[in-house]
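A quick aside before the break. I want you to see a complete sequence-to-structure record at least once, exactly as it would be stored in a machine-readable document. Don't worry about memorizing anything.
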Amino acid sequence: MLEVLPDFYHEKQSENCVEFMDSLPILQIAADELLSEIHTPTPVGASVVQYFKALSADTLPTNLIQAMRDSF
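That is the input. The structure line, written in tokens, reads:
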């Protein structure tokens, strides 16, 4: 990921960016399966998976966030 990251900031993105973005859903599924199979609490691993899901989601739970803000 660190090798591809600088390419995202160029005006003309390379093929590496497209390949990386296309591989994210497959990697997310693999990470979910791995975390569910090891039966060990891994808060950092779960946070990373959720972070990538949030980055690639078409819709985000912004209504939930707003409701949480309103409750304070």
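Two observations worth writing down. The radius of gyration is 16 Å. The chain has one domain: 5-70. We'll return to this after the break.
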